[in-house]
């Protein structure tokens, strides 16, 4: 992507997320706003396309760099981005008010209005006054549309601005010709009311659209502006932008953490809901990582700053959201083409309408009014906004749920996913050993077996030892005191407990020492690929403990929900077939691939794709990067604060497989909203064009250009409101 970046002094803002039709209007106002200073300066040759065409079209290539090196950019971004829109809206409002005031004498001087209200008011040269007032409304009120048309022609993409500008220019030119000698009736009051309604409609639309596309601003707002810096002289309040890596800051209860860092003092609970979607407060102690923008709930803590500016988690998320909103989507391409053709249809239909009414013997002024109404009512405004607004809302929702979209096209494909392939370790399982079975091989009971084994393993850092100790803690067991503990390399551990020699050893040790006993229950767990250790008391085999990689409780729910959605769930693992089979049976998976080396994972995905499936791959994004790239949708799970995973299309911040379902639901809901909006926008035009042309004239139904403009604006507001109703 050819990115042109522009930074205006300290004030930086991003154009990509801005609602597209605003961009169009902004171009139209480009020359008007030079006096507002460089902060709001426009791009010289900024893209203006068909009002549908320009959405996400060329505009995506021209964006203001919205993240400053440090957080100074936050404030500048917030300020200039919001100010810029407000300025645009205020300008439309100002033009509307002035034009509306001038419209009053125009209506007062119009013969048709005088006849309608039953009074006569004429004076010498009144038609020239009417012309002068209308000329001001045409050039001042109509300037955004006239300038927009010039920009669209430069791009060879006639669109929304072209239609409005043509309509008002035809009406004005004909009326001027009548004023200066051409036989006929003037069109001044219709022209003035049309411009008034168009300005008001745009102002209302900009307000609606602004509300629906504030994803980035909402995220940026999460960042605090000040931090309590700990210095040798005491605590100093400094701007967040002044923080450097290694600085120590104090965060009081109720305050936001100023930047990503590590707690060095104090314990607390932190609310990360707005950042990662983790609903419960997260307990944090010294050594734990905290995210800038999260809220410190309980105790005062000191944090050593690790990342600042664009390297922080929040700023990386903002960057991902911005890129996702810029990415052109296939649905958008369809809308763009439709909007372009709709512009051509509008001009053609307008010309045919004019010719038909003249052929039927109607006065030129009547035929012209029909033509202008057709061109105005057909503006592809709603069509152009249908997709970008939904994109904006969905990226905002997903970011708040800890689902980050890197590739919009892949996200749109997620609605069609038929098979989800999960990596086993760390995704479906926790990557930690858990005691699954305790087998008694003598009189000693299960709890006693666990107490002896946990006591002996309590000083070891081996994953199996930790799994046994964890199980004893979980059951609230008091473990025995150990003396003379000794590691038997590769075989196990031995020690003395209550005066007895105790061993926790491998099956190999038992066989070597003639202690092995055949037992059906032991054979069963070994066949399942579980790791089995044995407890020996004073030379006698008394029990066995089977351990396996702990299955996440959320995995069962995730698989169940996928099945409910009609999606198959597969597993991919480098582990042996016995373990894979046990996990697959436990979770009710539809299939699995075991003993797959990292470089072979993408081949397995390809196999499923060759069977005709649309495949999503869920992994950690590290050793399964090729598989994530090969899949139709690559989902990296458990990214935590490291969201820059290049191989993934979608990044899940939390290590929760259920978020895969949320992502698919969101993709389906987003697509549904796009379809609803496109259906509304195209359906509206199918109904509006014949009505504007006057097909119901014989039934007394005739739309004026101003009513046409009102309907057009209303259709756009409906699209904006519908996008805001996107929920998951």
From TrEMBL:
The keyword DNA repair does not apply. InterPro entries: ATPase_P-typ_cyto_dom_N (IPR023299), ATPase_P-typ_P_site (IPR018303), ATPase_P-typ_TM_dom_sf (IPR023298), ATPase_P-typ_transduc_dom_A_sf (IPR008250), ATPase_P-type_domA (IPR059000), HAD-like_sf (IPR036412), HAD_sf (IPR023214), P-typ_ATPase_IB (IPR027256). It is a multi-pass membrane protein. Pfam families: E1-E2_ATPase (PF00122), Hydrolase (PF00702). GO terms for biological process: copper ion homeostasis. It comes from the Archaea. The chain crosses the membrane at residues 96-116, 128-146, 158-180, 186-204, 338-360, 372-391, 678-700, 706-726. Keywords: ATP-binding, Cell membrane, Ion transport, Membrane, Metal-binding, Nucleotide-binding, Translocase, Transmembrane, Transmembrane helix, Transport. Residues 222-321 form the P-type ATPase A domain. GO terms for molecular function: ATP binding; ATP hydrolysis activity; copper ion binding; P-type divalent copper transporter activity. CDD domains: P-type_ATPase_Cu-like. Belongs to the cation transport ATPase (P-type) (TC 3.A.3) family. Type IB subfamily. This is Copper-exporting P-type ATPase B. It comes from Thermococcus barophilus.
